[in-house]
Amino acid sequence: QALLEESGGGVAQAGDSLTLACTASGLPSIKWMGWFRQPSGKEREFVASIWWDGDSTYYGDSVQGRFTISGDNDKKTVSLQMNVLKSEDTAIYYCAATAMMYGNIRAPSSYAYWGRGTQVTVSS
Fold first, then answer.
1. pLDDT confidence of 2, banded at 50, 70, 90?
2. Exposed, middle or buried by CB within 10 Å (0-12, 13-18, 19+), for 13?
3. 36-51 as b/e, with b when 16 or more CB fall inside 10 Å?
4. How far is CA 3 from the centre of its chain?
5. Whether 78 contacts 33, CB under 8 Å
6. Which of 81, 85, 96, 118 could form a disulfide with 111 if both were Cys (CB 3.0 to 4.6 A apart)?
7. pLDDT value of residue 118
């Protein structure tokens, strides 16, 4: 069951920008929301996360400086602005959320809720 819904995926050219959005439904207690991506045949990779209470954001090394996560805590929505897209950004992008963070914020296992994903394809 998907409690998070992603949108905004599509096809882009290298160097272009794309914005993803995620909305959480029925999860008023979540404090962390983030994005992971999974290229075909590869493991899920941390992209970015936002901590509402601390008003803090975190980024994976591969997207630092290019991607920006933002959101609305009241609405429980997050956006991912992706700039200077590269072919290696091609993946299914998943929105994730959790109420408590007990482990590594970069680990998929630390997030309790997931969306079904949205495909982002970047052509070089």
1. low
2. exposed
3. bbeeeeeebbbbbbbe
4. 14
5. yes
6. 96
7. 97
